[in-house]
Amino acid sequence: MTTNMPARMLRLLSLLQGRREWSGAELAERLGVAGRTVRRDIERLRELGYPVEGTTGTAGGYRLASGKNLPPLLLDDEEAVAVAVGLRTATSGVTGIEESSVRALAKLEQVLPSRLRQRVTTLGDATVALPPRAGPRVDPAILTVLAAACRDRELLSFDYRARDEEVTARRAEPHNLVTVYGRWYLVAFDRGREGWRTFRVDRLTAPVPTGRRFEPRPLPAGDAGSYVAESIAAAPYRYAAVVTVRAPAGEVSAALYAPLPRKVEPLGEHECRFRLGADSLAELFWQLAGVLGLGVGFTIDGPAEVPDDGGAHDEVLNYLRAAGRRLTEAVDG
């Protein structure tokens, strides 16, 4: 039983933040008090600015709604450490997210108990993060509009810049946002082209909700993430290569740094093959970095359909082939 009123109110607030809805009887049981005490404490929270709403039902209940201002949140020890570590490592391709994370982390660490601050510091000191891969940044305001349209099932209009730099007006039914290695994608049904599309959010501008709702269509893949993976794998790239690796397929799949999991074809117990594709040489090298780290031999072949680029494609293939030969010689001794 929580007899101290301030402590009891903090416990009540923690319960309301931890679940969408509570009945009055459940709250009274958790707090070990009578129902009238719960009602008085709810009124005190409302006076402090917390938007606690009453819910209808057999016994009635309460829920913490969204308000005009963000109220203080109560976190347990594990939640506080998780948030602090997440803020320390926040790099998601969103413009300004790093600066916002630093400000939020400073506020959080200021009020962390010493035992938790030590845990966060220990994790930070023992962790080394490689710099994120350079990539396009997206406007958080655009992400907010897209996320709201996905949630509300609201038809969107926007401008989209394709790979060839052509900008077209689109009207689409947004389904999901997918983020992978700092790149954001919108999965949507394009009304004008009458088909599902994957839109790079960094190429999308001026999204405007139309106010018109739609019934969601079934995705052509099992989920939005799988659809994005299939779309990227099927896209035409400026540079491409087929890599045969002297290692098990599962080991190679785990080592690849590709933006999304790609199909690795087993050729035997200790050999496999996969396709690389990218619009820049730097991206192609980055995709292969995981395989280089395995320290096993591999061979490179370039598909004939890759367009000629003044010898640049031959140059990258020759470089990769040489790297494969050197690794093979080192492994074989």
Automatic annotation (TrEMBL):
Pfam families in the record: HTH_11, WYL
Highest taxon listed in the record's lineage: Bacteria
Keyword Transcription regulation: yes
Annotated HTH deoR-type domain residues: 5-60
Recorded GO MF terms: DNA binding; DNA-binding transcription factor activity
SUPFAM superfamilies to which the protein is assigned, alphabetical: Winged helix' DNA-binding domain (SSF46785)
Keywords: DNA-binding, Transcription, Transcription regulation
PANTHER family: PROTEIN PAFB (PTHR34580:SF3), PTHR34580
Protein's UniProt name: Putative DNA-binding transcriptional regulator YafY
